[in-house]
Every structure is written in C-alpha cells, then in structure tokens.
TrEMBL record:
PROSITE patterns: GUANYLATE_CYCLASE_2
UniProt GO molecular function: adenylate cyclase activity
InterPro entries, A to Z: A/G_cyclase (IPR001054), HTH_77 (IPR058852), Nucleotide_cyclase (IPR029787), P-loop_NTPase (IPR027417), TPR-like_helical_dom_sf (IPR011990)
Short name of one Pfam family: Guanylate_cyc
Residue span, Guanylate cyclase domain: 12-125
The organism's taxonomic lineage, starting at the top: Bacteria, Bacillati, Actinomycetota, Actinomycetes, Micromonosporales
Listed GO biological process terms: cyclic nucleotide biosynthetic process; intracellular signal transduction
Protein name, as recorded: Guanylate cyclase domain-containing protein
C-alpha cells in the first residue's frame, strides 16, 4: 500500500477509529499500546490483501482509499471479523472499531485528496458505532458485488455534521458481524420521545406488520385489548420504526395518570412543548400547532379518559391533514373514521419450523433474566408450554410468571396455576393505593398555565403512573377495567367466570335468564371478553387471568353458589342435547360432541365435588361414561367418582339406589379398562347390590352384564361364559333383553376364544337388532367387529373385510378411538392373511401409537394381536418389519384409519374368485 499509487476518478474513502479510545487508554494504562499496535497490525494485514491504499494513520484512526467500492466493503467485513475473532488480553480490552465508507469523484494532488467527499466519508465513520460498518448511498450504488451472504440495511436519511443535505446511510450486514446498534450518531435531533425499553421485544412480527399497514392507510387507529395484552409495548415498538416517516416527529403521551378530563389537552401540549396562551383554550393552541405539521401522536391508555381523549382527537384530525393518531385503549372511541384493531394474545402454537411459540419465547427470555442469565432447561419445555397455555398467551401474566420461576420450577408453577391470582400476585404490593394522592398532585400541577410547571408535572405523571406500576399485579390490571363497569355488565362478567371456555349467545342467555346483549357488548368493547366470529356464529371467551379475577369477585359478591349451580344445570342440559337430534329424539351418540364439552364438564364436576350437589356430579360423570374410556381417561373418571363419593359422605346427600348402581357399574368398567381387576370386581358387586335395592330389572340386567367381563379380566373364562349365559337368559325372560347386550358381546368373545365360531356367529346374529335399538351403543358397531373376528378365525377374508370396514368406519365417524384401534389391528390381521404383510406391520404400528397416546391397554384381544404381529415380523424379517412399523407409528388415528379403509377388498385381488373365469 503506497501513498504515491493513489486512485483517481471514482474513489471510495474509508475511515476507521476505535470507539471510546480515550476511555480504553485510561482503563488499560500501559496495556493500551499493545492493543493499539495489534489493532493496527490486523487492519494492515486485511488492507494488504485488498486494493486499498493507506494514506495515513493517526492515533487509532485509519484513512484508506479504494478504486473499487465492492472491494472496500469486503475489506471492512474482513477487518471486522478479524478484530472480533482475535484473542485480546481480556474481553474489556477488545477494541470496538467503527468504519465508514463513501464514494465520489476525487483526484489526488501531491499525495493527498482535497475534496468534500473525504470529509463526507469521515462524518459517516463518526456516525457509526463500534463494530459497525456504515456506507453512503453512493457506495451502495457503485458496489458491483458484496461479500457472500452479505447485504446492506437501509437506515434512512440522516444529516451529517457540517453538511446541509441529508445522506441515506446503509449498514453492512454479514455473517460474523454484529447487527444490533443504536441509531447512527448524526446531527439529527431525534424527533420523538418514545420511551426507551429496558427489556427485549419478543415476537409480534405479524401484528407489527398489520398495525403498520393500518397506520399507512388510516389517520386514527385504536389498538384495543385487555389490560396486560401488550398494547403499549407493541405501539411503541411499531412507532419507533416510523420516526423517519414523520418529519415533525413521533410523540408519545401517556394518559394513565390524567385524573381530570380537562387536562387531556394539557398533557398532549406539554409533550409537544407548547405554552398555554392566556385567554385561549389549550386545545385551540394544540390544533393550530398540529394543523401544518406531519406527525404521529401515540396516545397511550386512553381508556383512563376516554370521552375527553376522543374529543381532543376529533379536533386534531379535523384541524389538519398531516397528523395521525395511534391510540391504545381497553375500549374503542366509536369516532367517525376510527379503525379499531384488537390485539390478540401471544400465540401459544409452536412455530412453523417446530420452534417455540411466541408466548414460550417471551417466557424463556424473561425467565433467563429472572434467573440471572441462566436459561430454562430443555426438560422444562413441556411445563413452560403448559404455563403459557394456562395463561392464554397474555403478556403481562407471562412476565409475572417468569418472575415466579426465580423460586419455582416450571412444573411447580404449572401445578399452581389453577389459582392464577394466587400464583402470580402473591407477595406483590398492589400499587393502586399510592396512585390517588399522587395523581391529585399531578392534576394540580398540570392545571397551571406556566409551561415549565406543566412540563414538570407531565414528567412527574409519567414517572408515577408508569406501565410497570399499573401492571404490577393481575388484580390491579383487571380492577382498572372492572371499576368502569355498570352493575349488569359487572354481574355478567362474574357469572361468565364459571365457564371454562368459549360460550355462544344462547348459552349466555340461558345463564342469566335475561337478554344479555347490552352488558355483553360493554364487556366486549372494554376487552374483558373476546368476541370470536365463526361460520356458525360468534362465541365469547374470557382470558384465564381475567376469569380468575372475575371468579374471585363472584365469591366476594356471595353469588358463587347460584352461578355454579346454574353452570352444572347447563352442563347436564348440554349432555342431554348431545344424545338428542334436532327433533329431540335419541340419535347415535357421537363422542366428538362430548369432546367439545369436556372442559365445562370438568369445571362442573369440580364444583359438584367441592361445594355443590354430588348427585348432579354423578349424573355428569355418567353422561361421559364411554368418553372417559375411549379417550384413555378411565383413571380420571375413577378419581372424579371417588371425590363424589367423598362429597356424599361429607354432606349426607341422599342418592337414589338406581343412580348409585349406575355410578358403581360405570366405576367397575373404568377399573377394568385400567387393569385394576380387584377394584373392578368390588364395584361390580356394589353395583349389583344397589341395583337389586332399586328394583329396576333393566338396570339390574345392565349391571349384571359387567360381571362376565370382570371374570374374563381375572382369567376365569368358564365362569365368565356361564355367568354371561345366565344373564342373557334372565334378561330375556324378564323382558329386558336389550339391556343384556354387553353380556352378549362377552359371550361371543369367549366363544371366539375357544374356537366355537359357528355358535359365536349365531349369538351375534341375534344381537344385531338389539344393538341397533340402543343409540348410546350402536356407533361402536361391536356386532360387526366381532363378526369380523369370527370371519378371521374362519379365514374368510371377504366377510372379515366387509364387517371390519363397517365397524372401523362407524367407530371413527362417532369418535370411538380406542375401539377403532381394535378394528385397525383386525384389519392388519386380514392384510397379513391376504399376503400384504407390510401394510399389516404399518397398521399394527399405527394402532400402538394411538393406544400409547390414549394411555390405553390392548384389551382382551391383546394376546391375539401380539401373536399375529409376531407372525408378521417373522414373515418380513426384523429390519423390514421395524421400518414399516415405525412408518405406521408416525400416523395419527385419522391417517391410520384412512390407511386401513383404503386396503383393497379381497375380491379385487389378483386370483380372487371374481376373476376366476
């Protein structure tokens, strides 16, 4: 690099220096010179490999000229990587070098340049931060190529010191270079007062883009949402990206602490630096000032003074076309031209690449801060997901939860969130009491016409009623909105807290026995209820933290018993409707209809077992009888029954023997599904005793049918067959043959087990009409399934296929997933007997995966499935079988059923009798 070979014509100038070199020299003392020398060596080595020519070095600065803009950019990238990867004496001694590039016409005279382009390059370097590479628009334009994977980030227009025009600056972004820097250090006076955030902004990419688009198209956008939903943070973050768009600035005004409606205009004027004029309303001064300016006004927490804020906004918008307003509020203004945008909770759904959801990402970020930089362990992932799901993705609740993770594990916190307020608010001081007196002082200060006093008061207000204080607890946040509700809206909010999920309008009407439209509209407007439109109609949902608050208010108002008893009655009514068609006649039971009710049933059961009627709870549990077992939840069903028995013992509530018998019988079936044989037999005997006391022949027949199953589970097959035959005969003689259907199924299974296939077929043929007459059981198509098993025993693949396809299709149609696994396994056997062992292995793998997800056992046919599966493994060999089995294991139950139902009919196979001619 020789100074006498200076490029001429289009030249790219590069300036570098060490950021904070004086401070670094003072800190390192004698150790600074080696660092400075090593910094120079690294830069010179980089420049020697480029076409740059070093003009001079002064202190920690370099001035270099390049004939090629692209080469200059590549040299900067290489130099920054070399500096970053070098092993310096200590992290504190690492020099942070800022670099600036500019390209322009210049001629070297006597070994130097006398051109304003040189000064422009120096000013660009001075605008950079340590580790940052900035370049002018000219350099960006003339760079023919960039380093691999590099790009130039547009930082907007900036006024350089000593220059009247504005220069568009670009930042070099490349692997190995820092990316996040403050705004360039230029001569611009920052035309905004947006608050500086002390925590990182996580997620909300789609929301930022959507809100930015709305602001480009509309002059008034109101971001509406519940307290703690993240409205302020999102508005500030989005507005920060628009500072360069508004030549007269972006101005943030927090109205939370404005206690007098007349002071809203004063608060805005104080932020804009306006002096109230004697004898003139301050709003007129404000409108006149804004009329000729292009600015963005961010008004935060407008619900504190909704009407007054609406009036000022209306005056500003009609006074001039250059001003736009982004407002945050818990309810809209309902002004002409207002665009209301409702902020959604953070997504709790994992990202498209399988990464954490936005809600989990926020919790991970804040948890690391709460734990002193220690990030959550991978083993905590499932519990963290449980936490954010329980908190409905509400940012404030997640922030508070992260603080709790300083002293609790993720699993401990997840277990405590049944009491959201207790888990998140315990031990936190509610700051509301401190606000009133300070707020009155602020109001008195804002009322003055003296500009200095008004500005000081406004700053005091911002300090006192900061977002952190307002959102110190969930209770304080929700109370802010609750206090604005009228009596009807407040009562509706309290009563809706008994529901665990979304409700439709008829349900709200049923709950209150009154027209709820007016109070419901108020709750939706104030963001205390989320209105969610669907094709079938709008549903209304309460976020869990708000529900917890409303439930506490419900108890304090002495209304809990009435509201929860009403909810239990609704739940029983909903269960009854699931068994009936539009004409109120019984229809085939679909377990999918019960899936949507599950959370409400659990809430109703919880009340029945702790403060309500145990009898109502038993009726609820009975309505979910088959659902518990088919969803792999037999154990949960048993636990609810035990809790209800305890409630009966506690209260002495009389329960009719018939209802006890039904509950004990259901309990016995649950225990059998869980493999708890002793418990199964014990409750079977209790059910029989209660049924005999009730004197109901049909009930007794249904209870006695379970005895055969208990004996089968204990391996007493001969006794089971004898008992089943006796129950069937007794039921027929008593005129309740259809109530003994379970005994018919058990007898057919036993006959199949010992190879009496013809008799099993005869028994089942007589049971088809009985099954068709029982809507609660016909969706299982157990007769067809067992006839399919009989056909498999006979090696009649055509009959087996026909029966099993009917059984599987019906079981999937009506949601009997556990029993669908048996049908899938049976079709796997049919495939194996038909010579398609690979499909058989896939189906066995799929059935086992679904059983594992349901936590259910293979059931009474488990030994047979294991035997046939072993035969398929032998036929295929271990590696082929394992590969096919794994393919099946990756399928959902719906995909597995589709695979099984897609198996060709045996009559379509090559060589079948259909094609024999």
């Amino acid at each position: 690099m020789q100074a006498h070979n200076l490029p001429s014509g289009l030249v790219t100038f590069m300036f570098t220096d060490i950021e904070g070199s004086t401070r670094l020299a003072r800190m390192l003392g004698a150790g600074y010179r080696p660092v400075l020398s090593e910094h120079r060596r690294l830069l010179r080595r980089t420049l020697s490999d480029s076409d740059g020519t070093e003009l001079f070095t002064e202190g920690d600065s370099f001035f270099v000229a390049f004939s090629d803009a692209g080469a200059a950019i590549e040299a900067c990238a290489t130099a920054q990587r070399a500096l970053a990867s070098h092993e310096w004496p200590s992290p504190e001694s690492t020099p942070k070098v800022r670099m600036g590039l500019h390209t322009g016409e210049a001629e070297a005279v006597n070994g130097e340049y006398a051109s304003p382009e040189v000064h422009r390059a120096a000013r660009i370097a001075a605008a950079a931060h340590g580790g940052q590479v900035l370049c002018s628009e000219a350099t960006a334009r003339y760079a023919a190529s960039l380093p691999p994977e590099a790009s130039l980030l547009d930082l907007g227009l900036h006024r350089l010191r000593g220059f009247d025009d504005r220069e568009r600056l670009y930042q070099l972004v490349a692997p190995g270079l820092e990316r996040q820097f403050p705004r360039p250090r230029t001569a611009d006076a920052l035309a905004h007062n947006l608050p500086t955030q002390v925590t990182s902004f996580v997620g909300r990419h789609a929301e930022r883009a959507e809100l930015s688009t709305l602001m480009a198209d509309h002059r008034l956008v109101t971001a509406v949402g519940a307290g703690g939903a993240g409205k302020t943070r999102l508005a500030v973050e989005m507005a920060g990206g628009l500072v360069d768009t508004y030549q007269d600035g972006v101005w943030f005004v927090d109205l939370a602490s404005v206690t007098d409606p007349g002071l809203v205009a004063f608060a805005i004027a104080a932020v804009l630096g306006l002096r109230p004029e004697p004898g003139r309303p301050v709003v007129d001064t404000l409108v006149e000032f804004a009329a000729s300016r292009r600015m963005l006004l961010v008004l935060d927490t407008c619900d504190a003074q909704l009407s007054a804020a609406a009036e000022v906004i209306s005056r500003l918008l009609t006074g001039g076309g250059g001003i736009r307003v982004l407002a945050t509020s818990r309810e809209p203004f309902n002004l002409p031209g207002e665009t209301v945008w409702r902020i959604p909770p953070l997504s709790v759904t994992p990202g498209p690449s399988g990464g954490p959801s936005e809600a989990v990402s926020l919790l991970l970020d804040r948890t690391a801060a709460a734990r002193g930089g220690r990030r959550a362990e991978p083993s905590e992932a499932d519990d963290l997901q449980r936490v954010v799901s329980r908190l409905d993705g509400l940012p404030l609740a997640i922030e508070l939860a992260a603080a709790r993770l300083r002293v609790l594990s993720a699993s401990q916190l997840a277990e405590r969130l049944d009491d959201v307020l207790g888990a998140l608010d315990a031990g936190r001081e509610d700051p509301e009491g401190t606000y009133a007196g300070e707020g009155r002082w602020v109001a008195s200060q804002l009322a003055t016409v003296d500009l200095a006093q008004a500005g000081a008061a406004r700053r005091a207000a911002a300090a006192i009623r900061s977002a952190t204080q307002r959102h110190a607890t969930i209770q304080a946040t929700v109370t802010w909105s609750y206090r604005t509700l009228g009596p009807r809206a407040a009562r509706l909010l309290r009563w809706l807290s008994v529901f665990s999920g979304p409700v439709d309008l008829p349900t709200v009407e049923w709950l209150l026995d009154d027209d709820p439209l007016d109070p419901l509209s108020v709750l939706v407007d104030k963001s205390m209820i989320q209105a969610e439109p669907h094709a079938s109609g709008t549903t209304y949902r309460m976020l869990d933290p708000i529900r917890a608050y409303a439930a506490r208010r419900l108890a304090e108002a002495g209304e809990e018993r009435g509201a929860r008893d009403r909810h239990v009655a609704w739940s029983l009514h909903a269960l009854e409707k699931a068994h009936l068609g539009p004409d109120h006649r019984p229809v085939t039971l679909s377990l999918y209809a019960l899936d949507t009710l599950a959370d409400e049933m659990r809430a109703a059961l919880r009340w029945s077992a702790t403060g309500g009627s145990a009898r109502g709870g038993l009726r609820l549990a009975s309505g979910l009888d088959q659902w518990w077992r088919e969803r792999g939840l037999a154990r949960e069903g048993r636990l609810w029954l035990f809790r209800l028995y305890g409630r009966i013992a506690e209260t002495g509530e009389p329960i009719p023997e018939a209802e006890l018998a039904a509950a004990y019988h259901m309990h016995s079936l649950h225990a059998g599904a869980d493999g708890e044989v002793a418990e199964e037999l014990r409750f079977s005997q209790r059910a029989e005793a209660a049924a005999r006391q009730a004197g109901d022949a049909g009930l007794l027949a249904r209870v006695l049918t379970g005895r055969g199953g208990s004996l089968v589970d204990m391996g007493q097959y001969d006794d089971a067959e004898r008992v089943s035959r006796e129950v069937i005969a007794w039921a027929e003689s008593s005129g309740v043959a259809s109530d003994a259907l379970l005994a018919v199924y058990t007898l057919a299974e036993l006959l199949w087990r010992r190879g009496a296939l013809d008799e099993a077929a005869d028994v089942l043929a007589g049971a088809r009409a009985l099954e068709a007459a029982r809507p609660a059981e016909r969706g299982r198509r157990s007769v067809d399934f067992l006839l399919g098993m009989v056909a498999l025993g006979r090696r009649d693949l055509v009959a087996a296929h026909d029966h099993l396809v009917v059984a599987l299709r019906s079981r999937m149609t009506y949601g009997y997933h556990s029993r669908a696994c048996d049908a899938i396994c049976a079709i796997a056997v049919r495939c194996a007997l038909g010579g398609d062992a690979v499909t058989a292995a896939r189906l066995f793998g799929a059935a086992q995966a679904t059983r594992s997800a349901l936590r259910s056992t293979p059931g009474r046919f488990g030994a047979y499935w294991a035997e046939r599966q072993a035969a398929v493994r032998t036929a295929l060999g271990d590696s082929t079988f394992d590969a096919a089995y794994a393919e099946g294991g990756a399928l959902t139950v719906d995909e597995a059923a589709a695979l099984a139902l897609g198996v060709d009919h045996p009559d379509m196979a090559l060589g079948s009798r259909r094609f024999a001619a």
